[in-house]
Specification:
324 residues, alpha/beta, Peroxisomal Thiolase, Chain A, domain 1, five-stranded mixed β-sheet, 10 helices, 13 strands, globular, binds oxa(dethia)-CoA
């Protein structure tokens, strides 16, 4: 079967207007702006108002990505939404989005890999495009993490925010190594670490949505090691060195993790896109949100070599390498 390469034809993102500052959170739980900034780098996060759902955020981001690509929703034959905070137990946010956009071809579904969700969703779409199963895909990371936080738990509620980011992928003839497109994806998981980062409810266990629980300092240790491993593995498989990569778009969990990984792999911090100060941790939305910001402000340009990576609950982790 002919192999195709998935090219990023367009990108878009969306953040709800409401900003929650560290000062405001300090009046809700026993914390401070200085603790949050020193330990995480976060200054603020966006919060979806009541009535605004994950599908609403996903729709805005997807429409912006379609506009950027100059592609009509009618041509879309695959929608993959990475989310851990869907509107409903079912149907998926993917199918909700399909209906809203007026897309009727192909398939739409959700992928659940928490903060690694966007990398997983990108990998699924890339593989389906490569096999000719889809030609034009929208891949979205969208979250309303604010809905699953325990707003009395200072160890978690200060960390997360809401938002969405999307990419439109189109299948092209595979071309040569230097032609634009996804060069590879690398997915990992290890289910033994569930207790370090999980939600304590669900339809089949408690019949409730549940709230996010994390033993942050233990997750931190795994994060730096596993992320660095995924980055060196994907670069090695693609035959490029870390030095040859123009930009690193990491999952935005903590500025100290970004810096720890950069130090470990001798990456200059100017090459690492960071939005954690303004967005907090938006789970599956964080990678496309950061990617879009760096495209909008002119840092990431067409032809650049970009590495995306993430780690999240499960544990799940992974990376994607793309010639933009
Ligand atoms: O996106 C999925 C992946 N997630 C991550 O990668 C998150 C990884 N973990 C982290 O980013 C960090 O571990 C945190 C930001 C969650 C915590 O930072 P830390 O430097 O690891 O702090 P810690 O958990 O070791 O806690 C240090 C102290 C504790 O007090 P004691 O026991 O030393 O008296 C905590 O109770 O800080 C306390 N603390 C707080 N103090 C003020 C914890 N949260 C807060 C808070 N405000 N919000």
């Amino acid at each position: 079967m002919t192999e195709f390469k998935a090219r990023i034809a367009g990108i878009g993102s969306y953040l709800p207007e409401r900003i929650l500052t560290n000062e405001e959170i300090s009046s809700m739980v026993d914390t401070s702006d200085s603790w949050i900034r020193e330990r995480t780098g976060i200054r603020q996060r966006h919060i979806a108002p009541d009535g605004v759902t994950t599908a609403d955020l996903a729709e805005q981001a997807a429409r912006r990505a379609l506009d950027d690509a100059g592609i009509s929703a009618e041509d879309v034959d695959l929608i993959v939404v990475a989310t851990t905070t869907p509107d409903f137990t079912f149907p998926s946010v993917g199918t909700l989005l399909q209906a809203r956009l007026g897309a009727t071809q192909g398939a739409a579904f959700d992928v659940q890999a928490v903060c690694t969700g966007f990398v997983y969703a990108l990998s699924v779409a890339d593989n389906m495009i490569a096999r000719g199963q889809a030609k034009t895909a929208i891949v979205v990371g969208a979250e309303t993490m604010s809905r699953i936080l325990d707003w009395t738990d200072r160890t978690t509620c200060v960390l997360f925010g809401d938002g969405a980011g999307a990419m439109v992928l189109t299948g092209q003839d595979a071309g040569d190594e230097a032609s634009p497109g996804i060069m590879g994806t690398y997915l990992r998981s290890d289910g033994r670490f569930k207790d370090l980062l999980h939600v304590d409810g669900g339809p089949s266990s408690t019949g409730t949505v549940g709230q996010l629980r994390m033993i942050g300092n233990q997750v931190f240790r795994h994060a730096v090691t596993n992320i660095a491993e995924s980055m060196t593995t994907i670069a090695g498989r693609a035959g490029v060195t870390i030095e040859e990569i123009d930009w690193f778009v990491p999952h935005q969990a903590n500025q100290r993790i970004l810096e720890g990984v950069a130090r470990k792999l001798s990456i200059p911090t100017e090459k690492v896109i960071s939005t954690v100060a303004d967005h907090g941790n938006t789970s599956a939305a964080s990678v496309p949100l950061a990617f879009d910001r760096a495209v909008q402000d002119g840092r990431i340009k067409r032809g650049d070599l970009v590495l995306m990576e993430a780690l999240g609950g499960g544990f799940t982790w992974g990376a994607a390498l793309v010639r933009y």
